Amino acid sequence: MEWYLFHYSRGSPASAVSLTGIIAADESTGEKIYSFDVSQNPEGWERFGIESIPTLVIFEKGLEYAKILGEKNRQQYELIFS
């Protein structure tokens, strides 16, 4: 089973664009996507090995499979989820 953890920070323009895109892609694809605001939970940087935001972490069978860094739009996320 595959699921996603989206790391973002409030106040970050790139996070705002990506968050809008990921919400729209989630609604259209029905993927299981969780979000984590590192500005509210700074321990997330180290805990999840996040080097930059936004970052989408893909998990498969409970293990980290891949990280996708940087700003993306709805269409880009839909491709990732397909």
UniProtKB/TrEMBL annotation:
Annotated InterPro entries: Thioredoxin-like_sf (IPR036249)
UniProt cross-references to SUPFAM superfamilies, sorted A to Z: Thioredoxin-like
Protein name: Thioredoxin domain-containing protein
Organism in which the protein naturally occurs: Metabacillus mangrovi
